[in-house]
Please model this.
Amino acid sequence: MKLISKIEIWGFRSIYHAVLDGIGNFTALAGLNNSGKSNLLRALNAFFSGETDIGQPINIYNDFYRYQTRKKEIWVGITFNLPQQFNFRKDLEPVTNQNIK
Model:
């Protein structure tokens, strides 16, 4: 079952802007060393848990894209492809009122 269909990241570590669209049931990340594969996974971890690595909470001053000329801002967006019978836990009801697709 495909739950995530798109990931978009702005201003996180070595990633100025990245869009992964058309994600399938199985997606492999491939690229040269220092191309941002691990930082993409860290951004996803920060989205879901608030930590970039185990026991390391996200820190705007250390984790933002260093070459940004604007304010320090990190943005991670995920487009979910949820089945109709999917229900959020009761303590997540405020989240369902956000812009979740």
